[in-house]
Specification:
Elements (H helix, E strand, L loop, with lengths): L1 H16 L17 E17 L8 E14 L2 E19 L2 E2 L4 E2 L7 E18 L4 E17 L3 H6 L8 E14 L2 E10 L16 E16 L5
Antiparallel strand pairs: 1-2, 1-10, 2-3, 3-6, 4-5, 6-7, 7-8, 8-9, 9-10
């Protein structure tokens, strides 16, 4: 539902914005050209899920922060980021659940697995600027897992390892950004994992685990270079 709503909004903005005469983008309100390079900071909230047994499909809150680079040529642009993010995941069943026979291997075990994962993300996105203040984004993201914390230790105790997840993933993503002040942009992006991250460390589970995440974030521009006045 959330993915469908965001996609619908992006399509509506694209349809209306691209009707604007391309010459609009030749100048920045008479101040300078729409041909520049930006670097800046990014920080925001991250909501992530794993779709796959035995995890819950809830979107769990986390955080994201890092740097961005943007190069723009009129209507079009490219944006790259280097960010760190945090995500949490919870299992549907206790850690001692026997997934081969759908029973509890230890009758008094009721503690579910809870994990906190840390990632480094490298997204590269194309931009379509549909107006002076609105840009649509779409592209791909490489994600490298840098740590996994078994918060209550129950999965490590039951299975001897917390290496449940593959360490890298590729996602496709889309979203939008709105410029609302001289150096600030507000953005929202959805990323859909393209690869199975199940490391198959739990006996009896061979299901595909796919990630999905949404971000709401703020960009702050540190520096801009371009020919013309600011």
């Amino acid at each position: 539902m959330k993915q469908t709503l965001l996609l619908t909004l992006c399509a509506a903005f694209l349809f209306t914005g691209l009707r604007t005469d391309a010459q609009t983008y030749a100048t920045d309100g008479g101040i300078g050209p729409y041909n520049y390079t930006d670097i800046g900071l990014k920080a925001g909230a991250n909501m992530q899920q794993i779709v796959g047994y035995p995890f819950t499909t809830d979107y769990n809150p986390g955080a994201v922060a890092g740097l961005y680079y943007e190069r723009r040529w009129g209507v079009f642009g490219i944006k790259a980021e280097a960010t760190g993010s945090m995500a949490s995941f919870t299992t549907q069943f206790p850690a001692a659940h026997n997934y081969e026979h759908n029973t509890n291997a230890i009758s008094d075990s009721t503690t579910k697995g809870e994990f906190t994962n840390m990632y480094v993300n490298i997204p590269v996105m194309a931009e379509i600027n549909t107006g002076k203040h609105l840009a649509l984004l779409f592209g791909a993201q490489y994600t490298q897992q840098i740590s996994v914390t078994d918060n209550n230790g129950v999965y490590t105790k039951a299975w001897g390892s917390d290496k449940l997840f593959k360490e890298s993933n590729i996602s496709i993503l889309f979203g939008l950004e709105i410029s609302f002040a001289r150096k600030f942009k507000l953005g929202a992006v959805y990323a859909q994992g393209y690869q199975d991250i199940n490391n198959q460390k739990i006996k009896g589970i061979t299901d595909t685990w796919m990630t999905g995440s949404g971000q709401v974030y703020l960009n702050y521009r540190i520096k801009r270079w371009y020919k013309g006045k600011w």
